[in-house]
Give the backbone structure.
Amino acid sequence: MHARAAGETAPDFTLPGTTGAVRLSDALRDGPVVVTFYQEDSTPACRQQLAALRDDGDLLREAGARVIAIAVDPLERHQQFAAELASPFPLLVDEGGRVAQEWGVWDADARRARRAAFVVGRDGRLMLALPWYSPTNSSQYEQIFRALGLG
């Protein structure tokens, strides 16, 4: 499956997570959604990736946006990681990587998602697609906020 690009319709999903099951199309009723895929709970780069979104939560809320973070780790590990991070957004379990595959960010060799970030508009279309996301790339991070009409 190809990596999703801006303008395409985001594949819908329902996944279990730290706040219960989340369906993307339901989340979009309240506004845009930042969907971020990360590689593994409790690793330094993934902690940095999610902590940045946590720390800028006020700006995201100002834009009416929610954050959904997705990785293949089991729910128990997600719950521990969410507690460590004091995450205000759900960490969702993509067991087997089905959703990462549909979004085109699956790393078959590592059997996990690549780091990626997407902004999905209320209409279900991708406003931004970063299928190769680096949490240390400030330009990519800023693109998330510009896609939401901030900055």
Q: What stands out?
A: The mean pLDDT is 96. The domain at 14-147 is CATH 3.40.30.10 (Glutaredoxin). Residues 44-55 form the longest helix (12 residues). The longest strand covers residues 66-71.
